Amino acid sequence: MASENVEDYLKSIYTLQSKEGRVTTSSLSERLRVSAASVSEMIKKLADEGSVHHTPYKGVALTEEGKTRAIRIVRRHRLWEVFLVEVLKYEWDEIHEEAERLEHITSDKLEERLDAALGYPTKDPHGDVIPTREGKVVQFGQASLASLKVGEQCVVSRVSDSSPDVLKYASKLGITLRKKIHIREKLEFDGSLRVQVEGREHFISGKLAQHIFVEPVADEKRRRSKSFKRVRTISRGKSS
Amino acid sequence: MASENVEDYLKSIYTLQSKEGRVTTSSLSERLRVSAASVSEMIKKLADEGSVHHTPYKGVALTEEGKTRAIRIVRRHRLWEVFLVEVLKYEWDEIHEEAERLEHITSDKLEERLDAALGYPTKDPHGDVIPTREGKVVQFGQASLASLKVGEQCVVSRVSDSSPDVLKYASKLGITLRKKIHIREKLEFDGSLRVQVEGREHFISGKLAQHIFVEPVADEKRRRSKSFKRVRTISRGKSS
DNA sequence: TGATTGATTTAGGCTAGCCTAAATATAAGA
DNA sequence: TCTTATATTTAGGCTAGCCTAAATCAATCA
Which among B101, B104, B234 has CB closest to A117? Predict the structure, then answer.
């Protein structure tokens, strides 16, 4: 496979592409903590090898091949995260760095065996979907907790893994996957919330609420029948 | 920690030191498949940072610090090997390469958790001793199968992991850890043996016999007492 | 429109490790 | 002892990725 550095670029491009649409030299520079000049060089290299399309001064986009490679790395990352939590008893805020290293040295066989040993999980410990080996990413629509109104109830389906501190704090409040949340109060001017989780009440800033994603409370029976948005499959075609 | 390359050098020096005593530029060059010139450069670097003693034109030896680091890597390598066999169901001839990569990206915490999850194993799947976290390597004396005489019996305690082919062949003959072997015949001129294992007889070359290490047959009773609370399969609470 | 500003790319350098070829040290044999 | 063969080291180069500084492009605003 490719070098670790190349893999990191591909993965970052993939993530930024899904999250923001456009991927620029500077966004990559910031994300990878590398100078814009270095990014520019690497982009040229990636374009030469056919992993990205590059329009100078405009931005990059993954080619089909680049996207496939990126998704594969994301898959490995998330499988390792499941392993770290389920088998090695890590907390969900401790796993990112470890998975970041493990993903790059994972052979096809190792990926396969790990997947099997874990029971073919479909989500990582933060609730992010684990792409299939074929590169299919089945993303269920999710609403941010920040979008709910007073009186509504919901169930936590994902917490953004962008910051370990957020994760740590969320779990301290009892906000972990599959927990039920009631919105008790909402301050419109700053988006902050008073919520109830497991019988306890907490105040949550609008900022934090944006990192927490939820689904409607479902009956045990027909759990998957509803979601706030449409179920959607991001496959090889368009992202986001 | 150090770079992957430095770690590989330290580990190789450690292994060669244990096996042959003296460690030369050329032996490292051969083992690491790198030119002698490159080895010479790296040795200078390692000497400068205090990991090895170097007498130009004579050879290298690990300092205490270098040895500690090398043993730590060996420990990680062997823990991963146990993991690959016990948890991911690899065969013992498939694990070396994977462990070779995993060992370099293993944080202290990961090492600790892995060790715990595996039930603090003391030997890897080939029978090699796993150094403790403090760097203690408890090596029990072992005789090579090649040193036994006709009529003797023994129990397999280790099989050299220097070649996957040897491992594969050995397991095909039923020669795996803790198996009992009877020496039925020995040809002195080439050291080859006729042995009985699990009721079947096989011919074994002297060369192969040198890769198989054995202990005297022990009482059934005493052997059982080892703790076996290892993770053999992964049982998980919830699978998202 | 044309100047300014910010983003991007190019130029020129650095390091870690690798290489081959050349120089040098040791050891072994005449 | 002297010569020769072999092992080791040094010299000089290469690549991948990183950097800063300088040059260039594009987009916006006067």
Answer: B234
